[in-house]
Amino acid sequence: MKKQTKISNAVIKRLPRYRRYLNELRKKGVDKISSNEFSRLIGYTASQIRQDLNNFGGFGQQGYGYSVDGLYHEISAILGLDKQYKMVIVGAGNLGQAIANHTYYYKAGFMVCGIFEINPRLIGIKINDIEVMDYENVVEFVEDNHIDIGIICTTKDAAQEVADKLCFAGVRGLWNFAPVDIETPNHVAIENVHISDSLHSLAYHMNKSRDEKSK
C-alpha cells in the first residue's frame, strides 16, 4: 500500500460505496471488472475510480482490470474492516435502541458491548440481550473493557460532556448522532452524523428535478 500523508475525506467517503458494490459483484460470482465497467455500475467516472484507488497503490492490472475479490479485501483493510471493534452506546432512547438492535454492525465486526442511560426508567432493561447500565459507570466500563468506539445518542446539550468523558476513558473514535458537532482531542476520530442534513439534501434534489422538468 502506498504511503500518503493525507487522503481527502471525499475519497474516504467513496471507499465504503466501492466496497459495497464489490461485495454485490462477489455474491454474483464476478471475478474481475474494469474501471469502465465499474464506472457504469457505480456512477463515478472511470478516471475518478482509478484516481481514488491510486491513492493507495492502484490494485489494477493493465489489460485485466481489478480482481473483484482482491479489491474488496484491499478496501476492507484500508478502512480497517479487517479488525473487530468494541462499542458502547450512550443514550438508550429510540435511536440508541435501533443501533443496538441492528445486527449488521455485529456481522461487520462492530460489537456493542454496553449501553448507558441517565433515565432511571430505562436503566436495567435489556436491548438485544444487553442490559442498560447507569451512565455514572461509563468511564469505568470503557476503561475495563478497552472500548474502541463511543456512540452518542443523547440530546445536543449533553453530547459534548459525554464525548469528553468517553475520550477521557480511552475510546479511539466517536460516532455522534446528537444534533450538534462535537469536538475531540486530535487522537480521537469523530464522525458527526446529521440525519436531517441528508433529508434536506433529498429535498433539494427533488425540487431541482421538478424545476428542470418545468422548464
Classify the helix fraction into a percent range: 40-55%
Low-pLDDT parts are none
What overall form do the CA principal axes indicate?
globular
Strand content: 15-25%
Rg to the nearest angstrom? 20 Å
- The ordered string of helix (H) and strand (E) elements is HEHHEHEHHEEEHEHEEH
Give the distance, in angstroms, between the N- and C-terminal Cα atoms: 49 Å
| SS field, number of helical segments | 9
In short, what is this structure?
The chain is an alpha/beta fold and 215 residues long.
Report on the architecture of this protein.
The mean pLDDT is 92. This protein has helices at 9-27, 35-42, 46-54, 68-78, 94-101, 103-107, 138-145, 156-169, 195-214; strands at residues 32-33, 66-67, 85-90, 110-117, 126-127, 130-134, 149-152, 173-176, 189-192. The protein is 47% helix and 17% strand. It is α/β, with parallel strands linked by helices.
Secondary structure: elements and pairs:
Blueprint: H1 9-27, E1 32-33, H2 35-42, H3 46-54, E2 66-67, H4 68-78, E3 85-90, H5 94-101, H6 103-107, E4 110-117, E5 126-127, E6 130-134, H7 138-145, E7 149-152, H8 156-169, E8 173-176, E9 189-192, H9 195-214
Parallel strand pairs: 3-4, 3-7, 4-6, 7-8, 8-9
Antiparallel strand pairs: 1-2, 5-6
Features:
alpha/beta; 9 helices; 215 residues; globular; seven-stranded mixed sheet
